[in-house]
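Quick note —
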Amino acid sequence: MRRQLEEEHDNHERWLVSYADFITLLFAFFVVMYSISSVNEGKYKVLSESLEGVFNAPAKTIKPIQVGDISPRSTSPDSREIFIQPMIGESSPPPDQRKKKKEPSKEDLQLEMIAGEFEDNFEDLIFEEKVSVQKKDDWIEISLDDTVVFQSGGVEPVDDALPIIEKIAGIMNQHDNAMLVEGHTDNVPIRSPVFPSNWELSAARAAT
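Predicted structure written out below.
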């Protein structure tokens, strides 16, 4: 009979080899990281000194180059004082008085007079915000509230509006000025055989 071979014993210390390799790689990794993060103190000191010299250096002024002969100016205190300070007893006028005030033209005075006539004649209606008088650059704008002149959707002036219109016409007849009449409507839409829209109604009111 063959002699039975003795069983080989398992090597339980093989893990030490892998552990040693791991420790070696870990040590190499930390060495590389330290070498990357380390600062060169010599270079850092040189850079710091250079920056300190730049910021602490005295300011340099640019000296202009003189071309040709220039007569020297007097630098005596008296001449500078006379040049800068005004003479005693004299003062420059304020800026608002330096500009010459524009005189109103004849047309402006006439428009202001006409606007004053309308304001005097319609003082109560202006207070009630039914009539407004505004002076523009070249004309006067007189606005009548639609409720004072027309009924809603109507084109014929109401009876109470006739005295107002006659008073306006009386003032305008005293002056030789052009007159432009515009008609407007309220915000209530209208659609009828006579006035398909508010545009036709406003045009008819202006022509009335």
